[in-house]
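agent> fetching stored inputs for the adenosine monophosphate docking request
agent> found them:
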Amino acid sequence: MNLILLGPPGTGKGTVAQEISSRYHLPHISTGDIFRQNIKNKTALGQEVESYLNKGDLVPDDLTNRLVEDRLNQEDVADGFILDGYPRTLDQARALAEILENKKAKLDVALNVYVPDEIILKRLAGRRVCESCGDTYNIYYKKPEVEGTCDTCGGKLIQREDDSEETVKNRLKTYEEKTAPLISYYEQENILKTVDNSASLDETLAQVKEVLD
Ligand code: AMP
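agent> prediction call returned; pasting tokens
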């Protein structure tokens, strides 16, 4: 099964993707995670993309498309994948279709993760990440036992640079301009399915199960 996840930042796409990945045994490919990992490891790619991420701008399409093509050519995706955060523009959607066509494959589902705007803002502004192990928390919805400290490893919780208020606003604006048109693109392709992730993760996963099974 070849899946992509759509939806603005702050809908909890990443968490939904991780759950689907473990339940359906599909490799979870998050372009945002790949970029952040490269920035953390100070690779050439990381240095190239760092300023885009810090401002909440999109990394250029050609670079992102090449990265995804390389990833989709690896062996572990032969039986399917879940792409999280890609495609984010119409150009990327067309590039993905071409990459898959060359592999004689196609997308099965574009899963749109919906959450009302006011919840999105709290999720983004409240998000904290452990700087040591990467576990995520939220000061409104998923508080750590000790403020500012990771429950899992005791590491320090920080706000991701791209979760700052100014960057969050820019990321949402970028989503509306560049990514929202993909909803009608995949609707026309007849593979769009929407799940509501404003209540509990279990409720969302029940909807996902209905769609995917
Ligand atoms: P995410 O974790 O998916 O919200 O991605 C974080 C940031 O990585 C985005 O704000 C962009 O700067 C960059 N990024 C991730 N995926 C893409 C993509 N498909 N195209 C361009 N930029 C991306």
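agent> quick read of the result: DSSP finds nine helices and eight strands in the chain.
agent> awaiting further instructions
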